[in-house]
């Protein structure tokens, strides 16, 4: 059995990478051959080639965002929410292959994102000592909760691969709120004059909704001559 897999999530950080790893491991355990395209903003991934698509018996798409699937027209395709593959990945793959249907241009399925009002603009930074799990998972949590609440949000990650998804001066200037979820020192000088809220990556990950409420309620204007790092 040869399959091709695509993983994607809103921020292209934690969920897409985690899903790709789980699916790669599960296909190996099943004795299948898999070509995997992990759409990520922090890891340089490969795009499925035409040959990989043509040779695949099935295309499995695990995503939480809108994707253009027209390149898979004529192939057996299974589309599911990315969270569906986390609990029992081998069973997920077996069901995907069993339920996949031939895709045509008229019925091409996509995961449709809900429109957001964009009433508030938020920028954030996540960082942890190792720059791996907590950094990216906290970023994912902040982006997904922000989008769920209808905010425009962008999160810069300070990880083991350097700063990714970097905030621009224009994005910072337009932001109504800055959230710093960090367990290490972060230079905050570029946020002078902005409403800023500091928290930990753990709180941002585990109590995301509550942290948003706290941020809007307790954020204070950052002064450049104050301490420019998180505790």
UniProtKB/TrEMBL annotation:
Domain of life: Bacteria
Enzyme Commission identifier(s): 2.7.1.202
One GO cellular component, as annotated: plasma membrane
KW Transport (keyword) present: yes
Domain PTS EIIB type-2: 1-98, 122-217
Cited NCBIfam families: FRU (TIGR00829), PRK10474.1 (NF007783)
Protein name: protein-N(pi)-phosphohistidine--D-fructose phosphotransferase
Lineage of the organism: Bacteria, Pseudomonadati, Pseudomonadota, Gammaproteobacteria, Vibrionales
């Amino acid at each position: 059995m040869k399959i091709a897999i695509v993983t994607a999530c809103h921020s292209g950080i934690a969920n897409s990478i985690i899903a790709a790893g789980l699916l790669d491991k599960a296909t190996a355990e099943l004795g299948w051959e898999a070509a995997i395209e992990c759409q990520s903003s922090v890891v340089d991934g490969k795009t499925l080639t035409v040959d990989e698509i043509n040779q695949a018996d099935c295309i499995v798409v695990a995503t939480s965002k809108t994707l253009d699937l027209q390149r898979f027209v004529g192939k057996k395709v299974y589309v599911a929410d990315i969270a569906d593959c986390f609990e029992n990945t081998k069973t997920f793959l077996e069901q995907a292959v069993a339920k996949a249907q031939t895709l045509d241009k008229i019925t091409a399925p996509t995961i449709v994102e809900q429109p957001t009002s964009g009433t508030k603009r938020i920028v954030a930074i996540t960082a942890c000592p190792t720059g791996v799990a907590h950094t990216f998972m906290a970023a994912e949590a902040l982006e997904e909760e922000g989008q769920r609440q209808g905010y425009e949000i962008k999160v810069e990650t300070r990880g083991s691969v350097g700063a990714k998804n970097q905030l621009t001066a224009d994005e910072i200037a337009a932001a109504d709120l800055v959230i710093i979820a960090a367990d290490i020192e972060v230079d905050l000088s570029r946020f002078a004059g902005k409403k800023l809220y500091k928290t930990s990556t753990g709180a941002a990950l585990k109590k995301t909704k509550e942290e948003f409420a706290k941020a809007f309620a307790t954020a204070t204007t950052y002064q450049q001559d104050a301490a420019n790092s998180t505790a």
